[in-house]
TrEMBL record, chain A:
The keyword Membrane applies. The chain crosses the membrane at residues 12-32, 38-60, 95-111, 118-140. Residues 11-140 form the DUF1468 domain. InterPro entries: DUF1468 (IPR009936). It comes from the Bacteria. Keywords: Membrane, Transmembrane, Transmembrane helix. Pfam families: TctB (PF07331). This is Tripartite tricarboxylate transporter TctB family protein.
Automatic annotation (TrEMBL), chain B:
It comes from the Bacteria. It comes from Roseobacter insulae. Residues 17-439 form the DUF112 domain. The chain crosses the membrane at residues 20-46, 115-137, 143-160, 167-185, 197-218, 257-279, 321-342, 354-377, 383-404, 462-484. The lineage of its organism: Bacteria, Pseudomonadati, Pseudomonadota, Alphaproteobacteria, Rhodobacterales. The keyword Transmembrane helix applies. InterPro entries: DUF112_TM. Keywords: Membrane, Transmembrane, Transmembrane helix. The keyword Transmembrane helix applies. This is Tripartite tricarboxylate transporter permease.
Amino acid sequence: MTPGGSPAPRAVGIALILLGVGAAATSMGISLDQYGRWGARVFPLAGSLSLIAVGAAELWGARKAAPLDHRHVPAIFALLLVSFVYVWTLSAFGYLISTALAAPVVLWIFGVRHPMGLGAAAVLCPLAYHAIFFELLGVFPPLGRWFDLLDVLGGY
Amino acid sequence: MDIFAGLATVLSDPILLGWVFLAAVVGMIVGAIPGLTASAAIAMLLPLTFYMEPLPALAFLYVIGKSGRYGGSIAAILFNTPGTAASAATQIDGYPLARQGKAGKAMKTATLSSVIGDFTGEILLILGVAWIAALALKLGPPELFAVFFAAFIVIGSVIGKSVTRGLASAALGVLVNMIGLDPISSTERFTFGSFDLTNGISLVPLMIGIFVLGEVFAQIEARGTKTALVPDGDDAARNSLSWSEYKPCLPHVIRSSFIGAFIGMLPGLGSAIAAFVAYGEGKRRATNSSDWGKGALEGVAAPEAANNAVSGPSMAPLLTLGIPGSTIGAILIGVFLIHGIQIGPTLFLTSRDLIYALFACGLIGILMYGLIGYYGAALVGRFITRIPTQVLYPIIFLTSFVAAYTSRGNLFDVYVMVTAGFAGWAMRKLDFNPAAFVISFVLAGGAEETFRQALLLSDNGMMIFVTRPIALLFLVIGIAALVLRVRGRRRQARDHALEDA
């Protein structure tokens, strides 16, 4: 139902139907209320059935697919991996060490290659963000379960 | 008369004026950076406003939204890249003017038109919003649910390239909102045994992910491309704007302001649609229509007035019904909620002073970005070309993590933000509609509540939605919008196929 065609209509249609079926099955597992009414199930089920319906419409209307540019997919997945690892390291090593590691990696992914720049980011980024958010705004920082530099520095 | 009290409140508070000024500058810069939008800036700065008083917090984000819409025109004229989707129509005539060495003239036209459009929208909002709120107070749960239903359909089907994928985005938004405990029976829904999911998905990390981190992912694909500034020349005569040059633009500006204000009141349509409708209508009525597209000042004035006129009226459904008319509105809901302000028709009873002071901030913000833009837009353009994107986006990446964490001090929210960021990028890539997803996520709670309240009131089950005329009217509006849209797209697809043949 798009004039120029959207990318991967069949794959998207099938994915929407599968997602809708899964969500509908899960919706049917939602407990009924004390009077045996479907109250809590209605909206999740309506959303799930809508997904199945639009998935079917997507499949039915699938004609010419627009091409997808895959050139940058490795870099995007690299950034996604860095993102998840960064959150995990926040919980394991606290904010300062995690950010000191993440900042140069992300700069490198975006094309910064200068060693001085990467080194400066590793020092300045954690300091600047810590100062603004955890000192100035008074937000309690995420403390590392395994090790936290703040324990050594006596920040918190 | 409340607005005069609001203006007095704002003008007598230098700190508040400082926030409005800062917002005007920040919004303009962010809007002018290709790829970054006012929505992204607002989502990223939202957690900072948790630590502010409600009025400065709301005013800061509201004015960023206004100024950001205007800032998009700077990139459209100077870089041939619209800073926001709304300024794509400005680019059609703005860039040819810049290539003729009249970038300054084009930007002054854009500034004046944006200011007139934005003022018109804001004044209409101020005059009409209390009246709409009074009407909304008379609506019961069946009517409100029907309004929500129409909003879901319009938001899902009207914006974006694909109707099915837009509707799928809206359905996904509803499903994600259902995660957590049922608000009435506290039954677990879609939690899969996870304790973190029982609290539901928080709006702030979701929006930071979709609008900010999603854009960082998207910018990886633009690595290495340089933003080139069109040489604006130093010819003062070419870049000054005289009254005789701007006078032919005025009828277009006035018409487009009303087009933008009308479209702004309809949930989900937004400023991009307003700009293109105004451009099309302006060209149709212009005496010099053959010049449009080749560098006509009227072609800059019409879309700029329309896309800025959307800003004020788009607040009307948000403030009176709790239905965000735009992504910026959806984000502002977060600020209202964080500060314990219940939006909806009763807002004008409980927080009337605050709302009119916010409108006053809007008016002052328009004036500020108008003055800064008129005299400094070229400077902002030059400043943006000096920002290295390979450094800017990593900084935005790191900021999005700390901002998502700050909202509740919870690392689970940061995982949500990362997932939403990737989903936001994938949605854009596959022609889904991130705005419809977020707005539906915001609407789903209210829609479910009114739906269940309506059923409790009803003796005939679902028939209550058909037997109440206003509810029926909105249901019909929703379905008619979908049918018209599908027919329109089919006609376009057929024309496209004929062109290919």
